[in-house]
């Protein structure tokens, strides 16, 4: 994966570590809109999947895309925990939360998502923020699909997400590789 991101002609660098498709996802500590700590787990007892999406912010540059993703996912019938993750300094989570149907808005207050998933921008005008990213975590806790555009002005691939959600939901049998 490329470690640089383009935004309005500016080259931004990502932190060095990242997680890729096929690797076991990491549990992360975040804060909800009330400031309460919570753990986002890579797998769930009800065998639901997890979707982690991050954006630098919800400004006019990104809000339409965020709302479009939320609208798509509000019609998905498979068990899915959805989290919209922003950096720890983001202050408009309550306003955004009131507009979203499917996502729980959380902050990366412990810098775990940014550093462990490789989404933290470490240079340029967006340093300290999270890049645009999407991680689909399968029922067994592995990264099944990843979308992290190298240009922040390009949208996430929602048609591919729809396909990958269906594949992830139907392909897991629950018996592991030795069953």
What does the model show?
By secondary structure, this protein is α/β, with parallel strands linked by helices. It is 20% helix and 25% strand. The chain has four helices and nine strands. The chain has a five-stranded mixed sheet with strand order 7-6-5-8-9. Strands 1-2 form a two-stranded antiparallel sheet. It is globular, with a radius of gyration of 16 Å. The C terminus is likely disordered.
In brief:
This protein is α/β, with parallel strands linked by helices. The protein is built from four helices and nine strands. It has a five-stranded mixed sheet.
| Run of helices and strands | EEEEEHEHEHEEH
Total DSSP helices: 4
Taking the sheet with the most strands, its summary is: 5 strands, mixed
Rg of Cα set: 16 Å
How many distinct beta strands?
Answer: 9
Detail the topology: elements first, then pairings.
Blueprint lengths: L3 E4 L2 E4 L14 E4 L5 E4 L8 E6 L8 H11 L6 E8 L5 H5 L6 E5 L3 H5 L16 E5 L5 E5 L10 H14 L8
Parallel strand pairs: 5-6, 6-7
Antiparallel strand pairs: 1-2, 3-4, 5-8, 8-9
Any key phrases for this structure?
179 residues, alpha/beta, 5-stranded mixed sheet, two-stranded antiparallel sheet, 4 helices, 20% helix, disordered C terminus
